[in-house]
Each structure stands twice: as structure tokens, then as C-alpha cells.
Specification:
Organism: Rhodothalassium salexigens DSM 2132
Order of helices and strands: HEEEEEEEEEEE
Protein name: Opacity protein-like surface antigen
Distance between the termini: 42 Å
Number of domains: 1
Pfam family, one: OMP_b-brl
Low-confidence stretches: 11-17, 192-203
Number of strands: 11
Mean pLDDT: 79
Largest sheet: 8 strands, antiparallel, barrel
Helix content: 10-25%
Keywords: Signal
CATH topology: Porin
Radius of gyration: 24 Å
């Protein structure tokens, strides 16, 4: 009797394993994910007119993100994909410098973008990939001088990163990754009190923003 029970248990375990493999491999199909993480934004401000080479500030904070995408796994286990992403950052910093008259809260808000991904299925549960894509982020300057209005600018950037996905079930898993974004520069633009008038001309500093972040989350494969 015990022998029959052991055979039955082994058969059930084998069938369950095969069912998982059929559902989890390949990593082909649509997916959605929800995550959170920490990011650091390096803000550099410079002004050639005043011979100020560079002022550096760090804007740290948490972020939440949401993604939707589609990927296809080839027989050689390489996986190609395309995804759209939306995230919201709570990172901010206070910039202040007497030479430029800067007294402003600089805040990063929403971002959206699209990434192309290429990866390799290390097993029927584990996928490692790298990504490259476009991102657009909103940056807001909130002057401490309430006589000045808030000002917002949209920055375009190039995002590079890597990620590991691990399937917990046949349709749901966890992910963890890191990415770095190079944004375009703001130059000769007066942003929320950052800048002033001099000899009937606007003296505005150049603002450079680069960002790195680490995050984790869950995903569901449809």
C-alpha cells in the first residue's frame, strides 16, 4: 500500500512540475508589473557668465512605477521585449547659493517612457535582461520666495539598465533591477527663480540632471 502511495505522490509531483514548465517556459507573452525603489538624482548647476564652474546637489527619494510590455522567447533562450513605463518620484532637494540668488526647492515628479529589452532565460524560472530606452521626466522648481511662481520643465533622457525576473508560479513572479538615466541639459532658461536679469538679459544657469535607481516589484504574465 505504501508503495502505491509513493508512486502516486511521485506521479502527481511529476505532473505538477511538467505543468509548471509548460506554463512558465517560454517567457513569451504580455505582462504587467508594479514596483517601488530608491533613486538618487545628481543636479549640477553652472553659469559661465559669472564664472561659476559647478554647484552640485543630490535629490534622493522613493519612487513607484508601473509597467506593461510584451516579450518573446526564441528557441535559443534569448528573449526580446518592448515595454512602456510610468513612474512617480518623491525625490527633491533644496538648492541655495548666494552668487546666483538660488533659494528653490527642486522636485522630480512623474516620468514615462519606453524600453527595448534583450535577455536570456537562465532556466524555466529565471530571466536576466538588459534594457535601453527613452524617458521623459517632469522637474519642478518651487521658489522659497512666494512672490515667484513655480516653474516646470520636461526633460528627455536615455535610460540604460539591467534586471532579473524570477517566476514564483506559472504566471506571477518577482523582479529586481538597477538603471541609470542621462537627461538632456537645461541651458539659458530661467526656472523657478533660478536665474535673474542682468543688463536687460536673462542670466540663467545650465542645469544637468543624471539619475540612478534600484528597485524591486512583482509582475504578472498574461
Amino acid at each position: 500500500m505504501y508503495g502505491k502511495a509513493l508512486v502516486a505522490a511521485s506521479t502527481i509531483a511529476l505532473m505538477s512540475s511538467q505543468a509548471y514548465a509548460q506554463n512558465a517556459e517560454p517567457f513569451t507573452g504580455a505582462y504587467g508589473d508594479l514596483g517601488f525603489g530608491y533613486e538618487n538624482n545628481n543636479v549640477s548647476i553652472n553659469e559661465d557668465v559669472l564664472n561659476i564652474k559647478e554647484l552640485g546637489f543630490d535629490a534622493d527619494g522613493l519612487f513607484l512605477d508601473l509597467g506593461l510590455g510584451y516579450r518573446y522567447q526564441f528557441q535559443n533562450n534569448f528573449v526580446l521585449g518592448l515595454e512602456g513605463r510610468f513612474d512617480y518620484s518623491f525625490a527633491d532637494t533644496k538648492v541655495g547659493s548666494e552668487p546666483l540668488g538660488l533659494q528653490t526647492n527642486l522636485e522630480k515628479g512623474r516620468s514615462f517612457g519606453v524600453n527595448g529589452t534583450i535577455g536570456y532565460a537562465l532556466s524555466d524560472r529565471t530571466l536576466a535582461n538588459v534594457k535601453v530606452g527613452y524617458v521623459n521626466s517632469k522637474v519642478t522648481a518651487d521658489p522659497l520666495d512666494k512672490d515667484l511662481d513655480d516653474a516646470s520643465k520636461n526633460l528627455d533622457g536615455l535610460r540604460l539598465g539591467g534586471e532579473v525576473n524570477y517566476m514564483l508560479t506559472s504566471f506571477m513572479g518577482v523582479r529586481a533591477g538597477m538603471d541609470y538615466t542621462f537627461y538632456n541639459s537645461l541651458s539659458n532658461e530661467k526656472l523657478g527663480g533660478i536665474g535673474f536679469e542682468l543688463d536687460d538679459a536673462t542670466v540663467a544657469p545650465g542645469i544637468d540632471l543624471n539619475s540612478w535607481r534600484v528597485g524591486t516589484g512583482i509582475f504578472v504574465q498574461f
